[in-house]
Amino acid sequence: MQICGKVSIELKPASEYLYEEATYKKIYADSLFFLNRAKEPSVKEEDKDRYARVSILLMAFYLESLSNALFKQFDARSEKKLYGTKFSARGKLPEPVQNFLAVYRKLCQKDLSLSTDFIDDIFTIRNKILAHPLGFSVIAGTGIPRGQGCYDKKIKYKKFTNFPYVYSLFKTSHAETVVNEVRKFMNDYCNLLKNKVPEPKIFDAIRPT
User: Fold this and answer.
1) CA 15 → CA 11, 18, 30, 55, 66, distances in Å?
2) Phi, psi of 205 (to 5 degrees)
3) What is the pLDDT of residue 5?
4) Greatest alpha-carbon span in the chain
5) Which whole number is the average pLDDT over 59-75?
6) Positive or negative: CA dihedral 111, 115, 117, 118
7) What is the DSSP letter of 12?
8) What would the pLDDT profile of 111-154 be if each residue is shown by its tens digit?
9) What's the chain's Rg over C-alpha atoms?
10) CB atoms within 10 A of CB 157
């Protein structure tokens, strides 16, 4: 005896997808937005200073986000161990500096020739002044450099030696200097690495404009 049956199967198409965005690009664009606002003639001087401080803060976040992205992309964990115990004048190297150094060593098998002193300074500003400000700061007085405020032993700059030590004294010129230093470093960094990977376009994609 033969039994015949009919089976009907209905297939419903289904798919999942993920859409990624480069967080560091958004942060960089925000930093430039606030810098541009600080440079507008119609903006009050005190508001220009506010925009400038936000721009500097966001540029630190940009470096952190971008260095994390590169570190993950090239899996430079073993190389990072070489820099995790190295110290700057103020203590352990900032994480973004470690990441940039580790990725470069992973791809080039040697230490980065570019100076990262300005990155140290940016994170000193972020950590010691903008993110964790003092309750009170001396902005002027006998023997205090004009426009810098009272020197704090916890704050020591490597490159930005003429920058202020006080939250309220940061202005548009400081933010512009920070942005220009970051832009130059990242372009030089990309130039050094673009021929060290099978897909050099990755470094063209992260170049700041």
Assistant:
1) 12, 10, 34, 40, 30
2) -70, -30
3) 57
4) 111
5) 95
6) negative
7) -
8) 999 999 999 999 999 999 999 888 888 888 888 888 898 877 77
9) 24
10) 19
154-200 pLDDT tens trace: 788 999 999 999 999 999 999 999 999 999 999 999 999 988 887 87
Amino acid of residue 156: K
**pTM listed for this prediction:** 0.86
What's the mean per-residue pLDDT of the chain? 88
- Token digits for 131? 């993110």
Integer Cα distance of 37 and 161 in angstroms:
25
DSSP per position, 24-72:
HHHHHHHHHHHHHHHT-TTS-HHHHHHHHHHHHHHHHHHHHHHHHHHHH
**Both tokens assigned to 34:** 């606030």
Number of neighbours of residue 37 by Cβ within 10 angstroms? 18
Give the whole-angstrom CA distance, residue 151 versus residue 170: 14
Of the candidates 174, 177, 88, the one whose C-alpha atom is nearest the C-alpha of residue 129 is 174
CA atoms within 13 A of residue 135's CA, in its CB half-sphere: 0
